[in-house]
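FORM 7B: Structural annotation worksheet

SECTION A. Query
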Amino acid sequence: QVQLVESGGGLVQAGGSLRLSCAASGRTFRSYAMGWFRQGLGKEREFVVVIRWSSGVTYYSDSAKGRFTISRDNAKNTVYLQMNSLKPEDTAIYYCAATNRAYYTDSYYYTASTAYDYWGQGTQVTVSS
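SECTION B. Predicted structure
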């Protein structure tokens, strides 16, 4: 049973930083791709970034590029999302997701929520202006 548990959300002022964590359990995740999505109030779920666990290859959304960094810790089975220069429009619930179909060469495949089989419960990020 795959479990994903996010943490690290909170309230931060614009321009500040947060680091989200996604602790994964129940599998060996070396063959997985791990994604972060977010959903603002009244908005659709939006892709943020994905990392292929074994290779470390990443793919960022335009809104995340240059401000957010995804990484993983093999020993802790944890994926991190470092978010810098936060803006009020980054306010959302942030979700971690996982799929064992990490073999698609086109990273765009992983921007769709339907590419993922497992989801965490989400962590709230609020950026005040």
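SECTION C. Observations
The chain has no helices and eleven strands. The chain has a mean pLDDT of 96.

SECTION D. Sign-off
Analyst initials: ____
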